[in-house]
Amino acid sequence: MNRARLLVFNAALGALDYRVPEGMAIEPGSVVVAPLGPRQIVGVVWDAERLPTKDVPDSKLRPLLEALPVPPLPAPLRRLIEWAADYYVAPLSSVARMALGSSAALRGGGTTTEYRLTGEEPKRITPQRAAAMDALHGEQATIRELAEIASVSEGVLRGMVGAGLLEPVVVDIDRPYPRARADFAAPTLSEDQQAAADMFVAAVEAKKFAPFLLDGVTGSGKTEVYFEGVAAALAEGRQVLVLLPEIALTENFLRRFEARFGVSPVLWHSSLKASERRRAWRAIVSGDAQVVVGARSALFMPYARLGLIVVDEAHETSFKQDDGVRYNARDVAVIRARFEGVPVILASATPALESMHLADTGVYQRIVLPDRFGGAKLPDISIVDLREEQPERGRWLAPRLVEELKARLERGEQSLLFLNRRGYAPLTLCRHCGYRFQCPNCTAWLVEHRLSRRLACHHCGHEVPVPAACPECATPDCLVACGPGVERIADEVAEIMPGARVALVTSDTLNSPEKIGEFVAAAEGKLIDVIVGTQLVTKGYHFPDLTLVGVVDADLGLEGGDLRAAERTYQQVAQVAGRAGRGEKPGEVLIQTRHPTAAVIDALAKGDRDAFYAAETEARRDAGAPPFGRWAAIIVSSEDEAEARDAARAIGGKAPNLPDVLILGPAPAPMSLLRGRYRYRLLINARRSAEVQKIVREWLGLFDFPQGVRVNVDIDPYSFV
Ligand SMILES: Nc1ncnc2c1ncn2[C@@H]1O[C@H](COP(=O)(O)OP(=O)(O)OP(=O)(O)O)[C@@H](O)[C@H]1O
Ligand SMILES: [Zn+2]
C-alpha cells in the first residue's frame, strides 16, 4: 500500500489521504502520525473503500511520519466503531477516539517516574508542606497528579523532592499483571446455578455470538454463575470484559473476583492515574489483561482476544451516556459481541423491558435463577399508606417503620432506609418573603447540604454557602428547608434512636474506593445499625444481617412521569428490597407511598413481577414506545436564548413529513436552562420500519447553524429533561 486513508480525530476534517513512505509497514487499523499544516496529528488507517473523501492526486500527498508501536485496531472493532457512529448519528472520529483510551500508551511502554513520600520526618516544616504530607500519605503518582490530590502547586512538591521528603520511583508501564486462575476457588453450585453455568461455559467454548439474559432474583448468585463463564474464558486464554454501571460497585466486585480467581481484575475507568491508564490500555491491546472491569468507557477498547462480555446490573440507566457520543453501553455491548463472535451475558434481577422483550421473542436466550441461594427467602413486602399512617409533624418516617427500626436495633439486626435524594433538603425558601434558592445556570432548585453547609446545584455543580439572611428581603434566620434528602432522614433516625450507629451512603460521602471499602467492612463487621442511602445502596451489596428495608418515598420516581418512570420505580424498589433477608434471617420491606393503588406499587406489594411487565408492555405498545416503536430526540442549545429558539424553530420548520414518523416540538426543554445554555427539544416517535438515523441526518444536514448553537441527536433517549 503506498497510499493510506486516515481517520483523524477532528470531526470537521473527517478523512485525509497520505502517502506511505518506503519501508513503513501499515495496514488498516494502524495508528500513525501524520503532518497537518505545521502540526503533527494522530490518525488511524481506515479501510479506504469504507470512508469516502475528496480525491487528491498522488503527487499532492504528504508522507506519513511514523507508525506508532501498537497493534492495529482489529477489524471487528473498526466495524463496531462504524456501526456506533452510524446508529447514534455521531462523528466517526468521536467514536474511534474512545478506542484509543490513553494517548501516552500509543507511544509505547517503557518507564515513567512517579513520586511518593520518603517517610522522612523533617524537624521544621511549613504548614503547606505539612498539609501536603498528610494528603499524600500512601499515594504514589506523577507530580502533577500529586499536586491535584494535595491541592498544592507543583512547585511546592518539587521543593519537597529537593528536601528529601518525596522520592522518585521508576514505574515499568509494561510490567505484567498477576495471573488470574480459573480454578482458584470454584464454588459448589446449586442445581439451577450449575445448569446456567453450563450454558455459559459451552457458549464460551463455542466461540460464537450468543446473547443471554441472566434473569435471576436478587441474591440468586448471578455473579457466581457468570464467573463460571469467566473461568471458561480464562482457561481458553481469552479476555473478558465485565461492565458495571458505576465505579461505586467495583470495590465490591473486586473483592469477590479476588476470592474466586486469586487476583484482582484489571480496572478501567475515568479516574485512573495516567500510568495506570497507560499500563491497562497496553495490557488490553496485548492480551495480557485477562479480565477487565470497567464502566462504559471500557467497551470500545481494542481487546486482543475477547472471549466473553458481561453486563452486570444490565437494567441500570447509567449505561446510557448522555453527553458526547450518546450511546447505550448495554446495547453496544451486544453489538460488539456480534462483531467479535463471542457470547454476551446481560445480568439483572429486574431486566429492562427492552431486554425482556428480546428474550420473549427469542433473540436473547433467557436463563432463569428463580430462587435465592442457600434457601434464603425473598423478603415480605408491605405498603405504608402515608395518607393514613402519617409521620409526626416535621418527620418523614411513619410510626410503623419507626417501630420496625427500633425492633431491629434491639435484636442487633441491620436496617436500610432508601431515599433517592442527596443532601438535606431539595428546596430552601424564605419564610418571610417566599424567595426560593435557584441555580443561576440551570432550571433547578439549589439543594441544601448540611454536612458541607452549602446550597448546591446537582446539575452544574454551582455552590454557595448557606447565607445567614434571605438574599431578597434580608430577614435573618428565616430560611426553611422543604422536603427530605438522605441527610435529613439520617438526622431523624439519630433523633428517634439516639444510640443507633447510622451510616449515610451517597455519592457525597462514598466518593473514593477507600471510603466504599470502609463502608462495606463496617457494614459486614456489624459496626452499622442503620444505613441511609440513595440509589448507590440499592444494588450489588450483600449484608447477611440486614433484615429491614424502608423505602422512604416510593412516589418520588413517578414524578415527572417520563416514559420509563414506572419501570425505573419498579427496578429501584425491587432492587433495594432485594438487599433484605439475604442471610439466614428473613427480610421485611416497608414501602411508604401516597399512591398505594398505582399499578407499579401494587405489583411490588404483591411481588407480581409478571403482571407489572405485562401491563407496562401493553402501555408501551399503545404509545408506540420502545421496544415497539422508536424514539429519538434533537436537543438544540445556545448560551443565547433567542439563538437557541431560532435554531430550534428552523429545524422544526423543515420537519420531514413521513407516514411512519411523528415529530413533536420544538418546545423549551423541561430543563430549559442547563449549565448556562438555553435548551429546546424535538422528539421523534417512529415506527420500527422507519430509518430514523437516515431521516435525522438528512434533515439536520439542511442547516448551517451559528457557532454558538449546539445540535445534539439522542437516539433511544433515556433522559427527557
Ligand atoms: N454456589 C454458591 N456457593 C457459595 N456462595 C454462593 C453461591 N451462590 C451464591 N452465593 C453467595 O450468595 C450471595 C448472593 O449471590 P450474588 O451476590 O451473586 O447474587 P446476585 O444474584 O448477584 O444478587 P443481586 O442481584 O441481588 O446483586 C453472595 O454472597 C454469594 O457469594
Ligand atoms: Zn446548575
In short:
The chain has 721 residues and is an alpha/beta fold.
Give structural notes.
By secondary structure, this protein is of the alpha/beta class. The protein folds into 6 domains: 3-75, GIY-YIG endonuclease, CATH 3.40.1440; 111-172; 191-373, 3-Layer(aba) Sandwich (Rossmann fold), CATH 3.40.50.300; 376-421 and 485-617, Rossmann fold, CATH 3.40.50; 423-483, no CATH class; 629-715, 2-Layer Sandwich (Alpha-Beta Plaits). It has a 7-stranded parallel sheet with strand order 10-11-9-12-13-8-14, sandwiched between helices. Zinc ion binds next to loops. Residues 187-190, 193, 216, 218-224, 349, 373, 539-540, 542, 578 line the site of adenosine-5'-triphosphate. It comes from Novosphingobium anseongense. It catalyses: Couples ATP hydrolysis with the unwinding of duplex DNA by translocating in the 3'-5' direction; ATP + H2O = ADP + phosphate + H(+).
